[in-house]
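Tutorial handout. Part one gives the primary structure; part two gives the three-dimensional structure as tokens.
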Amino acid sequence: MGRKWNNIKDKKAAKDANTSRIYAKFGREIYVVARQGEPDPEANQALKFTLERAKTYNVPRHIIDRAIEKAKGGSDESYDELRYEGFGPNGSMIIVDALTNNVNRTASEVRAAFGKNSGNMGVSGSVAYMFDKTAVIGVEGKNEEEVLELLMEADVDVRDVVEEDGQVIVYAEPDQFHAVQEAFKNAGITEFAVAELSMLPQNEITLPEDVIPKFEKLIDALEDLEDVQQVYHNVDLGE
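Part two.
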């Protein structure tokens, strides 16, 4: 499958290393999923999944606890989950997922980010059909053969298993996310380098070198928006 997942994550981590932005985004997401169900991860699979993701990004415990306590406290603050689709330079495809308490504000900001950075908004469904929702779980300390063996022993079906930069990345159907994690945990692996539900492009494109800065500026502008949680695209940046 070769999705260069580590490079994508490393770039995000480097960009967020000296800011609290990623923590704020996780705080909002944790609050929302805790409020939608039980504020206990053992009784709320969505919350458990979000906390697993937060762990891979080293989100501080006090951020997590504050969001869960806010949900327990009966806060009436509510958020809508929104998805925007659009196009960047040279027909590149982009998906933007947001959590917002002001739909009009978020739509306006996302549209402006596209418009000011060589892109344009598309209608719902114009891009998403070219992406597949995929569970992505990565571990260290195992090779590809060992991971394949333990997944087979646990009778877990996956799309692909790839060694990338010293890690083994498993790509699976979304509903197999917890089954893959349990297979690893039963094998004594409890730390995950990656634990995501992502939108992966069915086909990646390569942009001309002189276009890449424009594309990256657009992605940065979208990711910098307060209400935006995730940005997915189909460009192979060759990093």
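Part three, for discussion. The chain has a mean pLDDT of 88. The first helix runs from residue 5 to 16.
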